[in-house]
Design goal:
By secondary structure, the chain is α/β, with parallel strands linked by helices. Helices cover 31% and strands 16% of the residues. It is built from nine helices and twelve strands. The strands form three sheets. A six-stranded parallel sheet has the order 3-2-1-4-5-6, covered by helices on one side. Helix 1 (19-32) packs across helix 9 (277-294) and helix 5 (215-221) crosses helix 8. The radius of gyration is 20 Å and the shape is elongated. The relative contact order is 0.15.
Length: 297
Amino acid sequence: MIITQVSKYILPEKGYGGTSRVIDWLTKALIKLGHTVYLVSQKGTKIPGAELIETPKNVADYTPYIPEDTDIVHFHDTNTVFPDRPFIITMHGNDTDAKFLPNTVFLSRHHAARHKSDRYVYNGIDPSEFIFQEEKDDYFLFFSKVSRKIKGHKTAVQLAKLHGFNLIVAGGWRLNFRRNIKYVGEADGIKKAKLFAGAKALIFPINWNEPFGLVVPEALLSGTPIITTNRGSMPELVPEDVGFRCDNFDEFEAAIKNVHKISKHRCREWAMEKFSSDVMANSYIDEYKKILNSNIS
């Protein structure tokens, strides 16, 4: 199959990223499966095996850049002009008031349902970028953009203050903490991999409808259990054998005390089964075929 991935990002992402890293991993996995991949993106993008078609910044219409021999075009942004040929759109954010084309794919069952759809493909990550570590170091991890509104860092900090465990916070801006709570700033690459691998658990107390939550499979691939809530995609990503889903502070406290009972190997097995880049690529191939076979465009 000849697939054109359309990206407004320069790939690979130099920082932590999110959507940009998913596009990177998907492109590499599709090439690994033997497909031809064009990558329509800005100058500076370089993914081995993908043929780059350079675009300027802020392109409103990618149609002139799409090769004629393309079987299907994969967009990762809804704010564009769509071509008169088979295409698919991945919706990476939340916009429940918008109307979506029938060939729009979401990131989880819950994400799709909130947008009145049943089409979704879980994000997948490259396992080779993460380190499995069974014997954990003496800290818990909060890894997210630190936000007063949606990421719930205050719950993680409150737990650490109350119970005195070591907490590492990797986020977007600095907060004032006490001795057992360490802020390490933004982390990517090997620094990020080591943080995930060494943690006793990832504390992810989100208080919004997370479409997916990329840090969850990143932690699980590292053999690190999850302590989270029941919001958004979390019931799909975190079954009880790989972590805890909490509805109140007492349940978070119980999870901290019992997290050692979770099998580190099961965490990685679950992530490999559901959230590897190879699994994601095969799922998208199925979606591409549905569109090509039904002439939806």
